[in-house]
Specification:
The protein is an alpha/beta fold and about 350 residues long. It has 2 domains: about 150 residues, no CATH class; about 110 residues, no CATH class. Helices cover about 50% and strands about 10% of the residues. A hairpin with a 2-residue loop joins strand 5 and strand 6.
Amino acid sequence: MSRMRRVVQAMSLTMIIALLCACGSGEKTTSDQSEDQASSQASPDEVTATQESDPTQPEEKTVVDEPKEPQQSPSVTLLNASSVEDDVLLSWVDLAEQQMDTRVSNVLMLVYDVGEPIEPPQEIPETEASVHERILDDGQIDSLMADFEAWLEADECMSTDAGYRAEESMIYRRYLEEGGDASHMRALCPQTRVVGIGLTDSLRNEEPASVTELLVLHELYHAFQQDLEEEGECRAAGDAEDSTTRWMVEGGAHYFSTMLVNDLDQEEARQVIYEQARQSLNESEGLREEAPDRKGAAALLLMIDKGMTTHESVMDGSLFHECAREFQFGNSNPEISLVEQEWSHF
């Protein structure tokens, strides 16, 4: 069993600009060309005067404001106490990040193994997880939590509130100590995200690896969605009972992960999405009821087919940059009303 802490840094746009400025450019600007032209037309006296300028005088230097770096660069930190190799998990992180238009979040991904479920089934209080046999020993848990707490303290937002950090540490210690089969992304701050995944015995030993990959990619997509914590009108609209937020957010993550697991073969992934949506349709018809991820992915396919949005905007995450799910595709949009009625007509 391996455990590591590794940070995958994403280079920001400002860093790229700074590098380009440092390297210079072979192209001349309009002002460069004007100076060249003026120099070529200068009189011999002017040229001589220029050449014989006093070398003791300091040269004038143009002060250029350097681009400001973001206060905290986007990154993904892996804490791995599972049977899945670090390189495999990080390859999934890289795959997901490569699709993104831009990245802003600071993400911790905690992955660990759990044993068989405890009978009768027991839920861990204040979580979505069930209790399983614990595989990790006390030393492993203490080591993981030390790294987890160090990450929280280093995060720009979480570093300001020791009480909040202590609460989150207690929650994740409970997951580890009680063998919680976590499967979530939690937003601790607007750009601070934790992906928690407790790999069950069935995931490790019975299901194909693609099922675990799908789960990891799904939660990473949530971690990269940029507008989930927007306040004000976006938050108010998203909290309404008839909001489109849940099925679009979950549907986007399922669409994304299904496409990647199927090697971006859109037609093959479409058939997988439809088949899974049919299975969920047998349980309930509403987009906001059971399995909003599977149903939502089918609804997004319909929106793409209708020209309302694009495959690219889902895959690069830009659909979730400015609360389009409510401001552009909310229930006041008559086209969305049709999508909610027709999403299962495939």
